[in-house]
Amino acid sequence: MINYILRRLLFAVVVLVGISLVSFVVIQLPPGDFATVYKQRLINQAGMSASEAEAVADVFRERYGLDKPIFIQYVNWIKGIVTEGNFGFSMAYGRDVGVLIRERLPRTILLALLAHATSTLVGVVVGIYIAPRQYSLSDNVAAFVAFIFTSLPRFWVALVMIYLLVFVFKQQHVSSFFSPQYVLAPWSWPKLLDFIKHIWPVILIAGLGGVARNMRVMRGNLLDVLNAQYVTTARSKGLTETKVMYKHAVPNALHPIIMYQGMVLPYMVQGELQAAIVMSIPTISPMFYDSLINQDIYITGGILLMYSVMLVVGNILADVFLAILDPRIRYA
User: Fold this and answer.
1) Residues 328 and 321: beta-carbon distance below 8 Å
2) Domain boundaries, the chain
3) How much helix, strand and coil, in percent to the nearest 5, is found in the chain?
4) Looking at the whole model, is its pTM more than 0.70?
5) Class of domain 107-282
6) Do 180 and 173 contact (CB within 8 A), yes or no?
7) How confident is the model over 62-98, as pLDDT tens digits?
8) To 5 degrees, how large is the angle CA 19–CA 24–CA 27?
């Protein structure tokens, strides 16, 4: 088991280096850079001439190293992360990228984890319930609802949610984590309830697709397991259907769900990204979107690297949990 984990960690380092290199190159493929965006702002907003703005942009490029080749920029960026923990400087926000990410990443992960826990729990429970009731009314209704949840664009659901919150439920503050009176207040039960009141729409929007997928995967795999020979043997021994279901069938049907956990956190972050942008929730997602528009390469690269770390760590944890559940997949 130790060798298995160490080998996965070694592969993870190689994967992260590859992802960071590809990401850093891809985000610089569009023509221009942040200095180009800054130059256009000087012309449109400050009234500078094109030649004056270009001179300022050249100074800007030299100051932040944007005039160097991409590979040199990448090496300096990775060197700063490894040796100093420095993710670079955000030219748009005028602050250290690491500080910006640390401010918003915990909120983003919290929302993503809550959405993930909700989608997994609801999806698995519903899948277990409808699998033995194949082609029944509940099975058909669940299949229809899963189709709707999977098909609806999250940004559209977010727009509908904003309309309902503002015009139906009369909620005044939908683009924050707290009402104004609780922003600086110490934690208390009223503040916790206010926090839940503000985050449940984002959790619902981010988790809808996950509920549908987990339900369909659990249903399909549980149907296969229930028709397996060892399940028939367990029934022939006189075991109750409840014991057959929860002792023999469900643990083996959970394998695809567990394997999916390695990819689910970035998937939930993606759902949170769309909801947060539409609803203007101050998480890492709107900042990531703005950095792409402004070609703020260091903050974009830093966030992509964080997403990659979450993906790799999630896959490692999923592999370890799966190895614990089913020792057959372990290798020396």
Assistant:
1) no
2) 107-282
3) 80, 0, 20
4) yes
5) mainly alpha
6) yes
7) 888 888 888 888 888 888 888 888 888 888 788 888 8
8) 120
